[in-house]
Amino acid sequence: MKLTSQLEWKEFLRAALQLLTIDDNFCGLDMNAPLGVSSMVRGLPIFTEDGDRMTSVIAYVYKNHSLAFVGTKSGKLKKIRVDGTTKNTLEYEIVQVVDTGPVLRDMAFSVDHEHLYIMSEKQLTRVPVESCSQYETCSECLGSGDPHCGWCVLHNTCTRKERCERSSEPRRFASEMKQCVRLTVHPNNISVSQYNVLLVLETYNVPELSAGVNCTFEDLSEMDGLVVGSQIQCISPAAKEVPQIITENGDHHIVQLQLKSKETGMTFASTSFVFYNCSVHNSCLSCVESPYRCHWCKYRHVCTHDPSSCSFQEGRVKLPEDCPQLLQAEKILVPVEVIKPITLKAKNLPQPQSGQKGYECILNIQGNEQRVPALRFNSSSVQCQNTSYSYEGMEINSLPVELTVVWNGNFNIDNPAQNKVHLYKCGAMRDSCGLCLKADPDFECGWCEGQNQCTLKQHCPAQDSQWLELSSTKGKCTNPKITDINPVTGPREGGTKVTIRGENLGLEFRDIASHVKVAGVECKPLVEGYIPAEQIVCEMGEAKPSQHAGFVEICVAECKPEFMARSSQLYYFMTLTLSDLKPKRGPVSGGTQVTITGNNLNAGSNVIVTFGRQPCLFYRRSTKHIVCNTTASDEGFEKVKVSVRVDKAKIHQELQYEYVEDPTILRIEPEWSIFSGNTPIAVWGTHLDLIQNPQIRAKHGGKEHVNNCEVQNSTEMTCQAPALAVDPNHQSELAERPEEFGFILDNVQSLLILNKTNFTYYPNPVFEVFNPSGILELKPGSPIILKGKNLIPPVAGGNAKLNYTVLVGEKPCVVTVSDVQLLCESPNLIGRHKVMARVGGMEFSPGMVYISPDSPLSLPAIVSIAVAGGLLIIFIVAVLIAYKRKSRESDLTLKRLQMQMDNLESRVALECKEAFAELQTDIHELTSDLDGAGIPFLDYRTYTMRVLFPGIEDHPVLRDLEVPGYRQERVEKGLKLFAQLINNKVFLLSFIRTLESQRSFSMRDRGNVASLIMTVLQSKLEYATDVLKQLLADLIDKNLESKNHPKLLLRRTESVAEKMLTNWFTFLLYKFLKECAGEPLFSLFCAIKQQMEKGPIDSITGEARYSLSEDKLIRQQIDYKTLVLSCVNPDNVNSPEIPVKILNCDTITQVKEKILDAIFKNVPCSHRPKAADMDLEWRQASGARMILQDEDITTKIENDWKRLNTLAHYQVPDGSVVALVSKQVTAYNAVNNSTVSRTSASKYENMIRYTGSPDSLRSRTPMITPDLESGVKMWHLVKNHEHGDQKEGDRGSKMVSEIYLTRLLATKGTLQKFVDDLFETIFSTAHRGSALPLAIKYMFDFLDEQADKHNIHDPHVRHTWKSNCLPLRFWVNMIKNPQFVFDIHKNSITDACLSVVAQTFMDSCSTSEHRLGKDSPSNKLLYAKDIPSYKNWVERYYSDIAKMPAISDQDMNAYLAEQSRMHMNEFNTMSALSEIYSYVGKYSEEILGALDQDDQAGKQKLAYKLEQVITLMSIDS
Fold first, then answer.
1. Are 335 and 424 in contact (CB under 8 A)?
2. Does the predicted TM-score (pTM) go above 0.70?
3. For the chain, what percent of residues have pLDDT higher than 70?
């Protein structure tokens, strides 16, 4: 398709002006259009496109450039610049503008020509005519060819000229490549030890910089530049900012020196600048050959950029030839265990100065360093002193050893020639005289005949031995020996190459050149096969008919007895014969493996087989066979003669082989398989029976797979489809065609690739496992169903079937196949069996199947039933006999039971009356007590810390950042940069998502990160809310995508978002807590505490007479009395004594705590003295004073049970005077050496007192741990049920313990008003004139928006989301943990009761119906009647909120800003950032990876900024 220019129209118009005259001849003219032109208008193609067809075109002129915009068939827009003729046409950009389909014909410009409107069938798109901003450098921008684009210099952006500020001023806007800014710097490198050096930057094409300019060395430093004409002067970084150059990274570090305009704040030019570090060089040559200004100080052995730092003038080296160095040496040979000096040539060797050590040689022998003193003769020679050397093992005869010459301990002399010392052993691997004399003459080894070994001359005793050496006249080895000959048979005609191996077989070829005979026949030695002393190869001559066998005989040099050898093996002459060949025919292309049979065919050394004129390639042979592979025949189809030559013998036998037509393939069926192959394929063709090993092949993605075929007859064979090479991890769901598909039929090339086949591969079947456990339970006869996909390939004809085999255990089953499941009739089996499905080349086990037996009665069962029946009949007879006798007794028993039941009923009624009476009296007491006491609210900071970081008292975010002084500035700079990143939404979201995707990022980490982020963003709550909404939206998407039930959203804290939501409400509902909800919550806590303390509480197990929790109820009768003690006021002894209600069954610690509660009624818990720090003193009327303790000498012990002391134990009467005094060490304590608790509070109360997180209260019943030394177990009111030595009688009356559950009702009734008040306050939208907190309305509206967005209209789901968001995430936490809001101490019984209230609260927010039965938990039964009305409150509350007018983002942001301002400086942001940064340290690679992949993060260079932070924060920086 062509785009045509308008150049020819000028011709057209000129011609149009010369109108033709219309006369008689007019009608016959070639061109008679009314326009009246005499020549044809021709278009000139300026742009041609063959691939992606053009569908529309539009054009306009911009600044003397004609621009054409072409839409294409594939939905792309091509931008083309037309400047004149064809040669000046440039396609400068292609943009995908519509998602699918072609661009339609009609396109239109916007009025200002800045946008283009483009249509497809389904889409209307607005596309800017230019996208200059995509080009990031001046050269990219101006090289793009887009005439709209130019470089706005000081803004460092590619843009239109009209969008560049002050673009009309000189050099501020570049429109040609030569106008791009260039920069050179002098000097362009400095040493890392040079600081504050003046650098002069020469600039080209830079506009005037009157506003000033900054010089920046990447992230190292930034300073003001001084503009002097076209030059800018900068100062290099100061000492602490210069980069650390580490040895591994070479000797230099390149940074970008950037110029930043103060006017725009943008970098507009940069050039490379090098910091080099000479000191990383530790040798003279590497120092002076460095491209930088490095000098070597010869006497200090250091490399420096400052030659003046060298000790002596003559010690400075600048040229390689002046370096101290060893010169190239001849091969240095040192025999082992011989004391010998090593002399080395050198130059410029320094003379050690006073205080410096001399020279040494270091040899590294097999990993062991050997140091040898050395002597410097002069500056050009050094000698390693007389020493012997050795190495392990006799497998190495010469070992090259690294040699280093050093002086002054560790100053190396350069060894550029890499001279090595070669240690050698004459005797190693030289066991014979020949091998010894064959050694390198420089070794000076010789054969010591007396010792029969290879040695140096000095090691061979002269008097009784002769020492042979190569150079001596007698240097010949005697006693040659033949150890092996090969082959040992050959034809008489000769030509066989015989290999003779042995010892001392001469040292030169001439020694053996003429003296070799094999079986009496001359054998001519060959030079190329001769290995001195070890091997001779010779070629046999022809043997006479009389010669049959014989030995091999040789003479070495001369035929004297000591130089002659004879083999122990015989060599035989053989006659070779042929009998047959198989197969007798094969394809004309060759490749057939032919076996020729005969006798003695393994004789000789070389075999040549020819079929006619064609060689048959030798493969192998044995005595009876020769196997060879035919080659292609150039003579066509014919019978040819077979000839076999062995060495010089030609075997005469008339054998013939026939070349016939190559096989062909006519069709294959089916023409498909699956990726794993191995499905059957039937193949039809001709001459297929010629092929011995037919194979089928498929090639895909450059990889080939082959499978085998089996020939049926000459026209048919069956094959197993080859697999297709697809990546198993990225298997496509689409069919694939192989690049090549064909057959390997011997050597037939034409069938390697079949062109006419459309063979297709379909995706492998995929099976699902039975279930997560992998076990499917079935009844006998039930079918086994295997689910999956792709079970039937989608072949065009639709009749595709795969051959499935399903094994249950070892037994196959009958299979029925559909596209998504296999139905398998289970075989007659019972028990557990593995199921295995096989298809094509794949196997898969979906799991085990367990077939439970139908239990037909077995013989033992029938016998046992019969026996049981007999016994039953005997029993019935016995019962009838006994009935009469017993009937009289039963009347008596009935009366006795009646009396017991009456007794029981009266006990229950009494219990209920007591409970009811208590209920009436207590409510009044509780309400009147609470009115007087103020509510001890925690301050905002403590409250938020307890919710955000439960259980951590002194969290780092409350303290100043602790950093060593030398790092403080860097760390603070890093954290400020990091704060900027945290305040970047793209980064923060990417950071959180990356952390959450790490497997090692635990639940605790998620909570911690959420809390830390919220502490950092406390001062930017608008931004925090924006991020939170985004995270929640993501969480909802993820929840719905993963097919989870929508109601599970926000149920558990499994993400950062959920914990952030809790923290968000924590921040924004503090005011609401203080003004409204705090009072009923505190009233409930006090009511529970006082009600519990009205009755006995077991100080060890935490069980109480009054409880809402069944687990914490004392289920037996405890006799107790209420005492009123008068307590002396510790603050003012003379003021009136304070009356305190106490139970006589209380332990001393419990008494102390009740007294402290009474005295310090209005004092927050943290400002009171601790019970453990006080002693209780009983002041008796007689004037005696007694310290009471939980344990002392009087404590009772029986049967290993020790009971804590109570007031009853000390027999303290009602009205006694007591005082709390500071702790003293009693005699008892002193005697026991403090093994007994510092009053029992430390030992027992600590078991049940937690100020930690709610998790720590999960196991609320403390164990009773025996005292390890004595094995004594402690108890207070009830002994722990687990101990078997406790009899029912010890637990008070035998009354049924369930009867005590009525006390739960009594307690519930007492506390009902307080629970109602709390729930009513929380679930109400108007509170004493103050409105519902904005946060609640805002968040609920957000959840409704999300539900609308996802088309969730189920009111239950919306209700559950809101319940999980506010009541579950915030209120339940506050109800269970009032210590988060108030300064109080919560004991374990109070905690248990609050948990019941919290559970009721959660049930009230649930939409599901709770079915109650006798097995339901007591806490659900307890509030069963109340929950429906509470549910109505919740529904009304949610409905009221929904009806309220929506809060505008503006109002919400104003409210959030106000909240931020009120609590601006509660936390130390630096410390919080440091804590968050620890996760960056842990997962830096993953976070950087995620940022690199994110387009927005890439545009903002967030990964680079984070790397800056990491650099600043790293400890070694």
1. yes
2. no
3. 87
